[in-house]
């Protein structure tokens, strides 16, 4: 598990440090304070700065848009990857870029720009030679501008930045998927809109008929006590594809199975969280806006489930919220698992993001005195 976390030059973060992380970590803050961005930074680290994750992070915020009226000039400085960097600007060649990792670690990931020149050696073999920014402007022939990830003495080439982003996205997925094998941690991400149906179905296939299936069903009973089973079926009304598998639930007293989505937002949200949780064993679970769809009366018990299974399955959870009820529910569960929680607030001060960390005692005092913690 991550014990601390540092982020530099990533999206709206110039530099932040969270000195103490635990099994269950709740992140609060005003709008545009960087709660979702913090989750993205953890995801980027967990993926070991994988090309596919980087592409998905850019596209998730529509950073790769192109308009007929306003097309970007065809050079690497306009590559949509720039939106991942602080101030939406790529670092200069060889200069510090994104840094993510544990504060005291010597193996943080550094993501920056490098330039390679393709040259032939004395035997006629073509080789890529890394060159400096000064050398680049002396000789522009056979040049590749590369997004690189550096960790200690090791350098990995991630993406070519001097190619059209559409070409990177369209033509190289197979190459990039091949590079995604060396992860720091496996992880699951439940966004504000939950997980795509295809992914949810695939994760349930890994869960059903295991001992964890009954744990998921038990959690669903918090909202609907009569639920006794879940299964995915293909909805052929929308054609045949892996995207068309939908979850059905068996409810006691009703002969036919019911679509899970017909049972309300809360049950759907809880199902996504639980399926992601049990499939994040020995890894990380990220939840954006934990409270979405969940009634405040259910949230303390859901937090207790997360605390319990984070310890049982060795899962580190990072969740965001802007709900006072969610904070209260987290505080209630944290008191029952005092060694397993961490809580911090992201604040905007002088146009920069700062971190305010709370202990269980200071959070409880703030809630009791009605001090704003969100």
Protein model, in words:
The strands form 3 sheets. Strands 1, 2, 4, 5, 6, 7 and 8 form a 7-stranded antiparallel sheet that branches. Helix 6 (197-207) crosses helix 8, helix 7 packs antiparallel against helix 8 and helix 9 (299-313) crosses helix 10. Residues 64-69 have low confidence and may be disordered. The protein has helices at residues 35-46, 51-60, 133-138, 165-171, 173-179, 197-207, 213-220, 265-278, 299-313, 324-336, 360-368; strands at residues 5-10, 13-18, 24-29, 98-101, 109-120, 126-131, 143-151, 154-160, 187-190, 227-234, 245-251, 258-259, 284-287, 316-320, 341-349, 352-358. The longest helix is centred in the last third of the chain and has 15 residues, at 299-313. The protein has 374 residues and is of the alpha+beta class. The chain contains 11 helices and 16 strands.
Q: What is this structure, in a nutshell?
A:
The protein has eleven helices and 16 strands. With 374 residues, the protein is α+β, with helices and mostly antiparallel strands.
Radius of gyration: 23 Å
| Oligomeric form | single chain
Ends: how far apart?
25 Å
Let me know the number of strands: 16
Strand content: 25-35%
Q: What's the total helix number?
A: 11
Provide the residue-averaged pLDDT.
88
Low-confidence stretches: 64-69
Helix content: 25-40%
The coarse silhouette is globular
The biggest beta sheet reads: 7 strands, antiparallel
Order of helices and strands: EEEHHEEEHEEHHEHHEEEHEHEHEEH
Q: Output the structural class.
A: alpha+beta
């Amino acid at each position: 598990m991550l014990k601390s976390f540092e982020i530099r030059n990533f999206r709206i973060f110039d530099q932040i440090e969270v000195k103490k992380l635990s099994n269950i970590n709740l992140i609060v803050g005003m709008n545009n304070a960087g709660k979702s961005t913090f989750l993205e930074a953890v995801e980027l680290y967990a993926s070991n700065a994988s090309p596919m994750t980087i592409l998905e992070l850019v596209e998730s915020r529509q950073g790769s848009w192109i308009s007929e009226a306003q097309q970007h000039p065809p050079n690497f400085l306009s590559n949509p990857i720039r939106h991942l960097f602080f101030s939406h600007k790529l670092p200069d060649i060889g200069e510090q870029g994104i840094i993510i990792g544990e504060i005291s670690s010597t193996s943080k990931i550094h993501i920056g720009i490098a330039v390679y020149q393709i040259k032939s050696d004395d035997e006629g073999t073509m080789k890529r030679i890394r060159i400096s920014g000064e050398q680049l402007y002396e000789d522009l022939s056979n040049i590749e501008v590369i997004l690189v990830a550096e960790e200690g003495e090791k350098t990995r080439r991630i993406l070519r930045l001097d190619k059209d982003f559409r070409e990177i996205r369209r033509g190289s997925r197979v190459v990039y998927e091949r590079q995604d094998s060396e992860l720091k941690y496996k992880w699951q991400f439940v966004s504000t809109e939950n997980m795509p149906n295809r992914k949810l179905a695939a994760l349930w296939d890994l869960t059903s008929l295991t001992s964890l299936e009954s744990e998921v069903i038990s959690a669903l009973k918090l909202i609907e006590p009569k639920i006794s089973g879940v299964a995915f079926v293909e909805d052929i009304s929308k054609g045949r594809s892996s995207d068309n598998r939908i979850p059905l639930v068996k409810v006691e007293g009703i002969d036919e199975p019911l679509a899970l989505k017909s049972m309300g937002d809360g049950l759907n949200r809880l199902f996504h969280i639980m399926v992601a949780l049990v499939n994040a064993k020995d890894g990380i679970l990220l939840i954006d806006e934990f409270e979405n769809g969940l009634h405040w009366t259910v949230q303390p018990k859901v937090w207790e489930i997360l605390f319990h299974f984070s310890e049982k399955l060795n899962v580190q959870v990072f969740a965001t919220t802007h709900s006072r009820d969610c904070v209260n529910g987290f505080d209630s569960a944290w008191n029952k698992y005092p060694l397993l929680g961490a809580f911090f607030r992201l604040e905007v001060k002088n146009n920069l993001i700062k971190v305010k960390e709370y202990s269980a005692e200071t959070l409880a005092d703030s809630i009791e005195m009605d001090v704003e913690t969100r």
